[in-house]
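Quick log. Single chain, no ligands specified.
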Amino acid sequence: MLTQDQILERLKAFEPGAKPRSNEDAEASKLAEGDRNPWVRGDKPLKAAAVLVPLVARKGGVTVLLTKRSEHLKNHAGQISFPGGRVDDSDRDAEHTALRETEEEIGIAGSAIEVLAKMEDYVVGTGFLVSPIIGMIRPPFELDLHDHEVAEVIEVPLAFVLDPKNIERHSRDYEGTKRYFFAITWQDYYIWGATAGMLRNLSNILWIA
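-> predicted structure:
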């Protein structure tokens, strides 16, 4: 299990485009990258969005904070996701978007979050180009859920989502073609799609030798 100091050290040293841990991992990354774009319908420009990948510094070990989206939402209803959303014209950058959306969705102010790194952008099938921003939150903190968007907040042990054995690769037939996606099952929660893909990228970042 990585210590908080090791996590901070590796994230601060991270450079987008760093080599994967092994040839096998490089091939898996290549397959995942090639599988993302075909999920996008049409040829419209991708819309800019950003999410916060919130790491919580618990005494018993670092966790990842995730939200369960409300069932009535138009996109990704009921799915497990990171707090975040579309970039507004008034946002300074992706980091500003991620922190603003986090405060709006779960009530944690940007001043309480230590931004550590930005992962490489991730394309999702609903037509968004998502910038994942990694941030550390140190307890105590209080949540104030925007119940129109967020039904529940969960924390998953970081060690669990980093373990490659817990990151599964699944397939689904999509318009006559088999497409692949990543998934992580923790307790009764099924984390899949872009969220699982970004967690897998985080795993690669933190475990690079």
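Residues 19-39 have pLDDT under 50 and may be disordered.
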